[in-house]
Amino acid sequence: MSGKAGEVRREINLTEKLLKISLSGKEIATHLRQSGKGNFSTCNSHYPAYKRYCETEYQEKYQVKMAQIGHYCEQLFFLILKEHPRDWHRPVAGIIALKKQYSPKVIEASCKRALAYGITQYSVIKNICHNGSYLLPLGEASYAGC
């Protein structure tokens, strides 16, 4: 494909296992294709310097956001990190995003309930907020972190 002089051409080539990105005929990035809906791969070096975090800085940033919601929310952060060390970000970001729909008090009570039953899945925590089960008594269930 020929273009006008000075025109920047961007190309994305997909194979069964790879995604290759070229700019004006020069390959600038190659990634393994991710399976499953919503999965992606990004090299840290592709981000501008101000957006690059080491893993612990990244975790600390989200721990602070969870702690701002409440104590149980922060404790749930630690449980999620322990149970899902490689993919902790999605459920944590989801819980933080619940602030768009629910008060911190509702999210905190939902996290308390989730901790009591050892629940770390975002979808379940969202359902606890939605259906009001955070108002139910906890009974005999308890998590050591509560």
Helix content: 40-55%
- Morphology call: elongated
Give me the count of strands: 3
Strand and helix order: EEEHHHHH
State the strand order across the main sheet: 1-2-3
Mean pLDDT rating: 84
Q: What's the Cα radius of gyration?
A: 21 Å
The quaternary state of the protein chains shown equals single chain
Number of domains: 2
Low-confidence runs of at least 5 consecutive residues: 141-146
Structure in words:
The chain folds into 2 domains: 32 residues, no CATH class; 81 residues, no CATH class. The protein is elongated, with a radius of gyration of 21 Å. Helix 1 packs parallel to helix 3, helix 2 packs across helix 4 and helix 4 packs across helix 5. The C terminus is likely disordered. A 3-stranded antiparallel beta sheet has the order 1-2-3, with no helix packed on it. Strand 2 and strand 3 form a beta hairpin. The chain has 5 helices and 3 strands. The protein is an alpha+beta fold and 146 residues long.
Brief characterization of the structure:
With about 150 residues, this protein is α+β, with helices and mostly antiparallel strands. It contains 5 helices and 3 strands, in the order βββααααα.
How are the SSEs ordered, and which strands pair?
Blueprint: E1 10-14, E2 18-23, E3 26-32, H1 55-69, H2 71-83, H3 89-97, H4 104-116, H5 122-131
Antiparallel strand pairs: 1-2, 2-3
Helix pairs in contact: 1-2, 1-3, 2-4, 3-5, 4-5
